[in-house]
Design a protein that fits this description.
This protein is of the alpha+beta class and 941 residues long. The longest helix is centred in the N-terminal third of the chain and has 22 residues, at 5-26. The termini are far apart.
Length: 941
């Protein structure tokens, strides 16, 4: 039967009416009396002083810089796209405070809150019950605490639900136009499932995949969470009651402590500042809680009086492993314990908490000690205006540079509380006052906490990596002094087409974190991979390229760039040479001694890699070009090397050491044949004048048909019997394209490699970014090939064995393809799939597994270097990153001009490659003297 248009319209209206009526009945919940009207929220009776306005603006910048426009959420920690409901509650409280403190206008507030609530309303719930414990802030996917996507999730946290319910109450009170929307969201959640026997219960997933309900909360946070529930009509009388607790004397003060400790319940009974501060500014300290809060502040003053150590303790993220700690007054039987959620002690990282100091200062404005500790942290903002740091380490006196929504959100809440004349933000009649009783022991399960679980760091990437990371005995780190200051340190002479966007800067800062976390300050080296104290020449080339990119993008200061560069140039002169010719294949980054790829010392070395030499030569050349003040130091390094055997008859060759049956070690020198890597290294050697025409891109290439595309698999080589290339991956071709541009010959190799991956995605829906990457388990190195050993799309280990389900989508490859092909729809898909794969303290992960979507836990020099280079390429108007030198009278060229050196120097004083420009772009080619030379961005003859 077919209805006429008017009949159809009438039926639709009837259906909508019936559905609406049903939903009203289904989702009805009791509505408590609203706490205030919106006018009271804007009633600023104690305006912020100019200094306090600076504090507020500084804290708000955290949320500006960590905003995720696709979801409306913000990152829980600086640059890390993850967040719990607790973090979301922090943001809502901060956003409300920012509005009434005039840090943002109504239009911006409405845009942000609309996007936030739209995403929140559409979140996938754990077992269709309540929000998962944590979500990816960039795409709103359910994840674990390592930000790995999980279809099911990991459970819910009742404490976090309580936190966001309190924030919801503030939003609906101060912005009543959102009341119905918030009511609808709460109605959609099965909040009652998190209540049992008058207590708060979270959910966790057991190893057997069953869901277990666990009692959550200890004295302080339990009461706070329960108050949030009560604001929405959900009663938790046992949770609000304070019991069970006892008093413990600490520094002469009787401190209330929950009697449910770690030993008996597997849950920490920590006493910290934040729960009392939150209760004070949001609900107002009343009854016994007011007395408890005063005791907790007083005992911290007493510790200062006794030890001279300023004290403001609470839980905080930290800027190093284990990344999250509870700095406590008391925990699990110990005074002043600093512990992880698993009760592991880290007393060396106890810190003065910024948010705690702010909280005590404004809750107790006449307290001299609160003022004293506040004065130490009030200006502890990051120099790049990214918000307040988490605190100051007691032992080292250095800042804890973790940037978090928790710290900055609480600061904004506190300042808004002050501006309202120290009136609580919530005064709803639904909120109870804790007065004691009843008292029944809660379940002995582990509670969830509002902080993110720390992410375990890991690994790195260079073309010759072959071995398993091994534990080595403790080695004393060798100290190397930087070279003397150069005459006139200069900024990079690169001319950028535009500055980084806010999001691009966040990515660049995240990538640079790898080089902060893995820096050996005594000798200037960087580990190739985060789990392994070793470096190759390829890895040091990556580092130098990253250093140049970070400076050019203004991620680091000129001072830091100069210090790191002089240190690296100094240590390069200290590395032992294999056979007194060339740097070896690997070095221990502590002892500077030669090691194999497993980290085992080899006194005599294990050969050299022409590919690694090419990488460092390219980076050193660009350093001279863009920072000519280092030219003399750079040339001194390369003049110490002998090139007699690495360049032979126009071919690049590498040396390996083999053990004979009679125990002798023999050196074998063979031509390099690794597809893409050989071409890249050859172009680098040409920059220095070497004739490597038979290794440079060109000639005939054998291909294989993959996804209907002819993909190169190896060069046809009549000049060598060496073992040919075994697989094709993207890495070397992308590095070549970023640094040298795509000349016609390289373009003919590059394009089918990209096209095959795009076609596979269209056919299967599997994102494909084929690369050599490293992982934290055997076989440690995985080559996710386009074609390998005659088969398409296989994952291979270094030994050629297939790795089942081992294929990765490479983060670095995704960034690079998007930089090179920004308008391509597939490259855009790749970038969207990988931009959130980073740890704010450790850098970008290697990628994620194609089959499971799980993050490949590993951090490497190469991945983070390529990401920085890709971002620099974007803002250079897609010009090759390697820029031509104009100084042909440097020490290198002067020495070359002398003729026979006995060290295999070039036989002509000119480069064997030139940068040219035509309608397809700019690129380096093997050229003659008559080839137009590009200097800067203009073409000259």
């Amino acid at each position: 039967m077919r209805y006429k248009p008017n009949q159809q319209k009438l039926l639709r209206w009837i259906a909508l009416f019936l559905v609406g009526t049903f939903l009203q009945l289904l989702f009805y919940i009791p509505t408590p009396v609203l706490s205030q009207n919106s006018n009271s929220c804007s009633n600023i009776t104690a305006p912020l002083t100019p200094e306090e306005q600076t504090y507020a603006r500084g804290a708000w910048q955290y949320f500006v810089k960590n905003y995720q426009p696709a979801t409306g959420f913000t990152n829980s920690t600086g640059g890390y796209p993850s967040g719990t409901l607790w973090d979301m509650g922090n943001y809502l409280m901060a956003l409300n405070a920012a509005r009434w403190l005039n840090l943002t206008d109504q239009a911006d507030f409405d845009t942000r809150i609309n996007k936030f609530l739209t995403t929140l309303n559409s979140l996938k719930l754990f077992e269709d019950t309540l929000p998962n414990k944590v979500y990816n802030a960039a795409n709103a996917q359910m994840v674990d605490y390592g930000n790995n996507p999980l279809e099911r999730g990991i459970g819910w946290s009742a404490l976090d639900v309580g936190r966001i319910l309190a924030a919801f109450d503030v939003i609906r009170t101060c912005h009543p136009q959102y009341n119905d929307w918030l009511k609808g969201i709460v109605a959609k959640w099965q909040v009652a499932r998190s209540l049992k026997d008058g207590q708060l219960f979270g959910a966790t997933v057991l190893p057997d995949n069953k869901t277990l309900l666990v009692q959550e909360g200890r004295l302080g946070y339990e009461e706070y969470g329960a108050r949030g529930y009560e604001l929405w009509g959900f009663s938790a009388p046992k949770a609000i009651s304070l019991e069970p607790f006892k008093f413990v004397e600490i520094n002469g003060v009787q401190i209330p402590v929950d009697t449910r400790d770690f030993k008996s319940t597997n849950a920490n009974n920590y006493v910290v500042s934040e729960s009392y501060i939150l209760d004070g500014i949001e609900f107002g300290l009343q009854g016994e809680l007011a007395d408890f809060a005063a005791r907790v502040l007083d005992v911290q003053k007493r510790r200062f009086d006794t030890t001279g150590q300023l004290t403001a303790v609470t839980e905080d993220n930290i800027d190093r492993a284990p990344y999250f700690l509870y700095n406590t007054v008391y925990a699990n039987g110990a005074n002043w314990a600093t512990i992880t959620d698993a009760n592991q002690p880290y007393p060396q990282f106890r810190s003065i908490s910024t948010k705690a100091a702010f909280g005590w200062r404004y809750l107790f404005p006449d307290n001299a000690y609160a003022q004293k500790v506040f004065d130490v942290v009030k200006d502890l903002r990051s120099p790049d205006d990214s918000g307040y740091y988490a605190g100051i380490y007691e032992e080292s006196k250095q800042p804890n540079k973790a940037l978090t929504g928790n710290t900055n959100g609480l600061i904004l809440e506190i300042l808004y509380y002050k501006a309202k004349g120290n009136h609580p933000l919530i005064t709803s009649s639904s909120a109870s006052v804790s007065t004691g009783k009843p008292s029944e022991n809660a379940s002995p399960e582990t509670p969830s906490n509002q902080g993110n679980s720390p992410v375990t760091p890991p690994i790195a990437n260079q073309p010759n990596s072959t071995a398993t990371p091994t534990d080595t005995p403790k080695i004393v780190e060798v100290a190397v002094a930087p070279i003397p200051p150069v005459d006139s340190p200069q900024s990079s002479n690169l001319k950028l087409d535009r500055p980084l966007t806010l999001i691009e800067r966040r990515y660049a800062e995240a990538a640079w974190r790898y080089f902060q976390a893995n820096y050996h300050s005594k000798n200037g080296l960087i580990d190739d991979r985060s789990d392994f104290k070793g470096a190759t020449l390829w890895g040091l080339g990556d580092y130098l390229a990253a250093l140049h990119a970070a400076r050019s993008l203004d991620i680091i200061t000129p001072k830091e760039f100069d210090q790191r560069t002089r240190h690296l140039l100094a240590v390069l002169t200290k590395l032992p040479l294999f056979g007194k010719e060339l740097p070896g294949r690997g070095y221990d980054t502590r002892s500077l001694q030669s090691v194999d790829y497993g980290g085992n010392p080899i006194a005599e070395g294990n050969g050299w890699s022409a590919l690694d030499l090419g990488r460092i030569l390219a980076a050193l050349y660009n350093l001279k070009t863009c920072h000519p003040e280092y030219t003399t130091a750079v040339d001194k390094i390369v003049l110490d090397w002998s090139y007699l055997r690495v360049v032979r008859e126009g071919i690049l060759s590498s040396a390996t050491v083999t053990k004979e049956q009679d125990g002798r070690s023999l050196t074998r020198v063979n031509p390099e044949t690794r597809l893409g890597y050989e071409e890249y290294a050859a172009r680098a050697f040409q920059l220095w004048g070497f004739n490597v025409e038979h290794s440079a891109v060109g000639g005939e290439y054998q291909t294989a048909l993959v996804e209907g595309v002819k993909v190169p698999i190896q060069r046809r080589r009549p000049d060598t019997n060496s073992k040919v290339n075994q697989y094709t991956v993207s890495n070397p071709f992308l590095l070549y394209a970023l640094e040298f541009g795509l000349d016609p010959q390289m373009r003919s190799l590059f394009e089918p490699i990209f096209q095959a991956q795009a076609e596979r995605y269209r056919r299967t829906g599997n994102l494909t970014a084929s690369a050599t990457t490293l992982i934290d388990r055997k076989p440690y190195t995985v080559h996710s090939t386009i074609t390998g050993k005659g088969e398409p799309w296989v994952a291979l280990a270094d030994n050629g064995q297939i790795v089942p389900k081992g294929r990765l989508v490479s983060t670095a490859v995704a960034f690079a393809y998007h930089a090179l092909l920004p308008e391509n729809k597939y490259s855009q898909e790749l970038l969207q799939g990988t931009t959130d794969l980073y740890n704010p303290l450790a850098g970008f992960y290697e990628g994620f597994y194609e089959t499971t979507g799980k993050t490949a836990v590993g951090f490497t020099n190469s991945t983070n270097s390529m990401i920085l280079q890709s971002l620099l390429y974007k803002v250079m108007n897609q010009q090759p990153l390697i820029r031509p030198t104009v100084n042909m009278k440097s020490p290198w060229w002067q020495e070359v001009s002398k003729g026979d050196s006995g060290r295999g120097f070039p036989n002509t004083t000119r480069q064997q490659t030139k940068l040219i420009s035509d309608s397809s772009g700019s690129y380096w080619i093997s050229g003659s003297e008559k080839t137009p030379l590009v200097t800067g961005t203009k073409v000259t003859e």
